[in-house]
Each structure stands twice: as structure tokens, then as C-alpha cells.
Design a protein that fits this description.
With 118 residues, the chain is mainly α. It has one domain. 76% of the residues lie in helices and 0% in strands. The chain has 7 helices and no strands. Helix 1 packs across helix 2, helix 2 crosses helix 3 and helix 2 crosses helix 7. The two termini are 24 Å apart.
Length: 118
């Protein structure tokens, strides 16, 4: 499903999607201002694609991922059942969740860049 998500980012072209992610990773992790300037257009294109729809994946792919997750045996997802948030009396901070997701995405993009550099 990750391959399909990257293909969607590339407007149906896996290679283009990988290029967008790779160049974005390079731009975010490079200390070379000339390199950053040369590949910034790819990061801008990726950001524009996401800003147009507000999401990085199609609704169909999101549904397929949700279905796959729902069909996964519960023990594969959780070793033990966690207490619901309401029982722990803690609120979910959406901003912190979004920040964590962004940090994880940056780490993934950086990993892709390192892998492509060899």
C-alpha cells in the first residue's frame, strides 16, 4: 500500500513519487545551500499536491488501509488491551499527535534519502 501511496503522490508514476520524496528528504536534511536551492522545487511540488486536496492519499487508499488494519488480528496490533483515554482521565492533544506524525514523516523521508544516496 505504501507503493500505491507513493505512486499517487507521483500522479500515477511511482518513479516520480519517489523522486518527489527523495528530493524533499534531501532538501530537509542537506547542509548544502546550493543543493537545497536546486531541489526545492520538488518539495514545493509535493507540498502543493498535498495542499490542493488536504491529504496525501486518495480516499479509496485510505479505506483500503483502514480495512486492512481492521482485519488485522487484535493481538498483532496490541499485546494487551489499553485503558480507554476516558478511564485514564487524559485528553488527547491533537496538536501533539500531528507534531509526532510530522516528525515521523520527516524521519521516513530522511531514511529514503539516505537509502537512495547509498
Amino acid at each position: 500500500m505504501l507503493t500505491r501511496a507513493v505512486t499517487e503522490l507521483g500522479s500515477g508514476d511511482l518513479s516520480r513519487g519517489l523522486t518527489l520524496l527523495h528530493c524533499t528528504a534531501e532538501m530537509l536534511t542537506s547542509d548544502d545551500p546550493e543543493l537545497v536551492a536546486a531541489i526545492e522545487k520538488y518539495a514545493c511540488e509535493l507540498a502543493e499536491r498535498i495542499s490542493v486536496t488536504g491529504v496525501s492519499m486518495s480516499e479509496e487508499l485510505r479505506r483500503r488501509i483502514a480495512l486492512a488494519a481492521a482485519q488485522t488480528p487484535r493481538r498483532a496490533v496490541l499485546e494487551e488491551i489499553e485503558q480507554p483515554v476516558a478511564e485514564r482521565h487524559e485528553a488527547v492533544d491533537i496538536a501533539k499527535l500531528r507534531s509526532a506524525a510530522n516528525e515521523l514523516m520527516a524521519a521516513l523521508i530522511a531514511d529514503i534519502a539516505v537509502d537512495r544516496r547509498g
